[in-house]
Specification:
The complex is a heterodimer of chains A (about 240) and B (about 230).
Chain A (H helix, E strand, L loop, with lengths): L1 E10 L2 E11 L4 E5 L6 H8 L7 E6 L2 E2 L6 H7 E4 L11 H11 L5 H14 L15 H13 L5 E5 L7 H16 L3 E5 L3 H7 L2 E6 L2 E7 H6 L4 H11 L1
Parallel strand pairs in A: 3-8, 3-9, 6-7, 7-8
Antiparallel strand pairs in A: 1-2, 1-4, 4-5, 9-10
Helix pairs in contact in A: 3-4, 3-5, 5-6
Chain B lengths: L5 H5 L1 H33 L4 H15 L3 H14 L6 H27 L2 H9 L4 H31 L11 H12 L2 H31 L13
Helix pairs in contact in B: 2-3, 2-5, 2-8, 3-5, 4-5, 5-7, 6-7, 7-9, 8-9
Classes of the chains: A alpha/beta (about 240), B mainly alpha (about 230).
Chain lengths: ~240, ~230
């Protein structure tokens, strides 16, 4: 379980998150929606200890992000998939996926590679294992990015606008992979602008605006019985 | 006056001995200046203020003073404060110290081109600072820095000739002796120029082969950007 407890985050005078509190249950898929600059990405980067919070607390399976000794453990349990893939350009797809498992989890190369090949097969890229990122399309790179995150056996998968840097015709292949994962009960928090996709996969939806959490509801309520005028307008706008 | 290479050929052994010294000095200084340059580059962008200042001062001092004066300072200056010097080791040291400053700047520039995104990725999977440097930053920084470093290595080879001024018997030093003995400077120095060319072409060739071996399949263009 991930608990966000009254979190503030600011860069100098710029307030990015203010008094955000919510919980993410194990096995749930939560979509975080909201206009650009709402603090969605910042929130999941704080969960992953990539950013420090300014006030409040975040606990991942009971461990506080404020406890420096737990940073590595929290990062092992929460894996990130990035908007711009952030693949290591000097390593093959296979090398990208096996680096952290061999160096951080101390798996043997054979073990890590077997797992990586299994994951690549799952996303339909087993024949591209020896390719470098520059030799792959955006959609392929992002699927490798997902494999890289899953290779860490995370308890929580964090997805940061994973399709927004990909050509539209390539997004479907990435979304299908995520949808499969959702079907398998992987705990996921996904920041996204793909509202139809959120409707299909999310169990719950969090709506953020200007650094604040405006709504945190189950997906059915959020999409079908929305009482908040502003959110309803946002949903309507995003559909077109 | 006729062009006549026979005096050069008769002293070929001696010139080749000089070439061997040049190659030895160059290879030693290339390795030392690379290792030292790498350390300085890391210090230069370290989060520790003291290391940053040390590296900046070091780099500025060595890049803004003439090499021959640095060399004389070490070779003639150190014995005065009780540190004995010997031409060859002192020459290699001076060359390494001086070239390390330039190499540090090249490597630092390479490190700065590495996207924040891949560092984020490494951190997000719990890699340590050392692991991120060793497995993510340096391989990419060195790929970017490798060709400019190759140019620096070629320069280093040419600069070894200055060591003849502190009686190192390198190619340039021995050439001066042969020229003085034979009164054939045109033939001697033409031969030596061609030889230096051959050495630097070889160095360039090795540098390019290493690039092809390690980096050729990785795209030249940056694929990744930082997070938005």
């Amino acid at each position: 379980m991930i608990e966000i407890d009254n979190v503030d985050k600011h860069y100098g005078n710029l307030q990015v998150l203010s008094a955000v509190s919510m919980q993410f249950q194990d096995g749930e898929v939560t979509a975080i929606l909201g206009p650009s600059g709402a603090g969605k990405s910042t929130l999941i980067r704080c969960i992953n200890c990539l950013e420090l919070i300014s006030q409040g607390d975040i606990r991942v399976d009971g461990m506080s992000v404020l406890d420096k000794h737990r940073t590595a453990e929290i990062q092992k349990r929460t894996s990130m998939v990035f908007q711009h893939f952030n693949l290591y350009p000097h390593l093959t797809a296979l090398g990208n996926i096996t680096l952290a498992p061999t160096k951080v989890l101390r798996q043997s190369r054979a073990q890590a590679e077997a797992k990586a090949m299994e994951l690549l097969k799952m996303v339909g890229l087993e024949n591209k294992a020896k390719r470098y990122p520059a030799e792959l399309s955006g959609g392929e790179q992002q699927r490798v990015g997902i494999c890289r995150a899953l290779a860490m056996n995370p308890r929580h998968l964090l997805l940061d606008e994973v399709t927004s840097a990909i050509d539209p015709e390539m997004t479907a292949e990435v979304l299908r992979v995520i949808e499969d994962l959702a079907g398998q009960g992987t705990t996921m928090i996904l920041v996204t602008h793909e509202i139809e996709f959120a409707r299909r996969v999310a169990d719950r939806v969090a709506f953020m605006e200007r650094g604040s959490l405006v709504a945190h509801q189950d997906a059915d309520t959020f999409f079908n019985r929305q009482s908040d005028e502003r959110i309803a307008r946002f949903i309507d706008k995003m559909k077109h | 006056m006729r062009i006549d290479f026979s005096p050069v050929l008769s002293r070929l052994d001696y010139l080749l001995e000089g070439l061997a010294v040049t190659v030895l000095v160059a290879v030693a200084a290339i390795f030392l200046s690379f290792a030292l340059g790498l350390l300085l580059a890391i210090c230069r962008i370290s989060r520790t203020r003291g290391l940053r200042i040390f590296a900046s001062v070091y780099i500025d001092v060595f890049r803004n003073t003439p090499f021959i004066v640095q060399l004389f300072f070490l070779y003639y200056g150190l014995p005065e404060i009780g540190i004995p010097t010997d031409p060859m080791p002192t020459g290699i040291l001076a060359l390494s110290l001086a070239c390390a400053a330039g190499n540090a700047e090249i490597i630092r520039a390479g490190i700065e081109t590495v996207s924040k995104g891949i560092v984020d990725a490494g951190r997000s999977f719990g890699m340590s600072g050392y692991q991120i440097y060793r497995y993510l930053i340096l391989p990419n920084a060195l790929r970017i820095a490798w060709r400019p470093l190759g140019n620096a290595f070629v320069n280093l080879v040419l600069t070894t000739s200055v060591l003849s001024t502190i009686t190192v018997n390198d190619l340039a030093g021995n050439a001066a002796n042969v020229s003085a003995e034979t009164f054939k400077p045109f033939e001697v120095y033409l031969t030596v120029l061609v030889t230096y060319c051959a050495v630097t072409f070889t160095v360039s060739g090795i540098v390019n082969s290493i690039y092809a071996l390690l980096f050729s399949r990785v795209a030249e263009r940056p694929v990744m950007r930082g997070h938005a």
